[in-house]
Design goal:
Largest sheet: none
Order of helices and strands: HHHHHHHHHHHHHHHHHHH
Distance between the termini: 41 Å
Number of helices: 19
Helix content: over 70%
Number of strands: 0
Structural class: mainly alpha
């Protein structure tokens, strides 16, 4: 018992009192590194396939990135709803409610994981047909996706478990689990591809196994946790009121993430029409550029969790201060990470594929996507803060308008008139800018009417 209490003190952050900037960094950096490690799953897939199979294999994996993101973002959104509900109740010192929310979140993760996996398997062929996947890439793309879908229940469980730990300020435990899973993923990639010659099926199987291991480690930690987030499997309860609250906050957040991925599916279909080199370049560049987003997303989730606890405690001035402190820190980290990627763009891309044309297209994508992401810093923090207050629908709707509508319109108008890789990449900063402006207007409105929103 004393051991559990010690662990609780070591990992838990006091978000309600004291300075903010140091605690936000302590919370966000392990979370950002966890995101980077998650991307290493895909990076390991792309690198091993690029070196030992070929660029068509890279194209097959890259083709599925947006589709997989569409499914995973639903889990991320719902798990974020669980994070907010648990954190708000911790802040309000309603510990018995927070404990019930942990149990409810775990059950939701299992149900949603199996349902989405089944639906995904049924829709694999129609979706690949819609995306105009080239014939020489089709078989590998389908194989990778079908194998990957088997691991969705574990991915969903892993995301929910991580959200439960985050709700009390613990981002280190999920990071440790993912370090172990990432190492296992890399080893299995090499064994399955080089020794067994399983190609894309091998890297997908390695990712599935690694996700299962990560989810199992977190499950064991939750069942042995002695604090608020302890999970007692024999005494699990399903609270319908908490379910509604998790879904109310989490589903719009999931839709917001899915909107990004849906619009990216449309862009991926346009990239597919530009050939295998463009597909391979986008897959390699995405694997690099997503690391910038990992830091932005981590600080956005920090804003969500810190605001959630302080809003639950009724400290509105501290909530507003959290938004601006988090945005400043996030911007600083963005500059450091983005500068590193842009300076070393060519050697980073060469790690995945040595084809000169693939490298040039990859550098072009990094320039158009990494350079303007300071806009995304504002967008992530504003969205994260609003979700911390329990306001989740507005960011989702505005993202639907600012991201999805603009990207779809762009692909069928601007890109259709000038079907070049450069024209297609320009849609990203344009859509980010419009969405950020809309979110800033919404944030000002809700801050001016926050007490009224809370009463309802």
């Amino acid at each position: 018992m004393s051991t559990n209490n010690t662990k609780k003190k070591e990992h838990e952050l006091d978000m309600l009192n004291g300075s903010l900037w140091d605690k936000i960094i302590i919370f966000a950096i392990p979370l950002a590194l966890t995101g980077v490690l998650q991307q290493l799953f895909n990076a390991a897939d792309v690198a091993v396939l690029g070196q030992f199979v070929g660029k068509n294999a890279i194209a097959a994996v890259g083709n599925n990135i947006s589709l997989i993101g569409l499914l995973v973002n639903l889990f991320l959104g719902l798990s974020l709803g669980a994070n907010v509900v648990i954190a708000q109740n911790i802040g309000a010192n309603r510990l018995h409610v927070a404990h019930a929310a942990v149990s409810t979140a775990f059950i939701i993760a299992l149900i949603v994981g199996f349902v989405i996996a089944a639906i995904g398997e049924l829709l694999t062929e129609p979706v690949l047909e819609y995306m105009d996947v080239p014939a020489d890439v089709w078989t590998m793309a389908e194989t990778y996706l079908r194998v990957y879908l088997f691991g969705l229940p574990a991915i969903g469980l892993d995301n929910f478990e991580s959200a439960i730990f985050r709700s009390r300020g613990d981002t280190k435990t999920p990071m440790i689990a993912l370090i172990i899973a990432s190492a296992l993923n890399l080893v299995l990639n090499l064994i399955f591809v080089i020794e067994f010659d399983w190609s894309v099926a091998g890297v997908a199987a390695a990712t599935v196994i690694a996700n299962i291991v990560s989810a199992a480690i977190l499950f064991r930690s939750l069942t042995h946790e002695g604090g608020i987030i302890h999970l007692d499997v024999k005494a699990m309860t399903f609270n319908k009121t908490l379910l509604k609250e998790i879904v109310r906050i989490g589903l719009p957040a999931g839709i917001q993430g899915m909107v990004f991925s849906l619009s990216n599916l449309i862009i991926q279909a346009a990239i597919n029409n530009l050939g295998a080199d463009a597909m391979a370049a986008s897959a390699a560049a995405f694997t690099i550029e997503i690391n910038v987003y990992c830091f932005m997303s981590a600080f956005g989730q920090a804003a969500t969790t810190f605001v959630s606890q302080n809003y639950g405690a009724g400290n509105l001035p501290r909530c507003k201060r959290i938004t601006w402190v988090t945005m400043l820190i996030n911007g600083t980290f963005y500059i450091m990470v983005a500068a590193t990627i842009l300076i070393f763009a060519e050697p980073l891309l060469r790690f995945f594929n040595s084809d000169p044309n693939v490298i040039e297209l990859g550098k072009l994508r990094l320039l158009y996507i990494v350079s303007p992401q300071l806009i995304n810093v504002v967008m992530e923090i504003i969205s994260g803060s609003l979700r911390g207050y329990g306001i989740s629908l507005a960011p989702a709707v505005l993202t639907l308008i600012g991201v999805c509508a603009i990207r779809i319109t762009w692909v069928y108008t601007v890109f259709a008139n000038s079907p070049t890789y450069e024209t297609l990449m320009l849609v990203y900063p344009v859509s980010w800018l419009v969405t950020t402006i809309l979110l800033c207007i919404a944030y000002r409105f809700y801050m001016n009417n926050l007490k009224m929103v809370r009463m309802h």
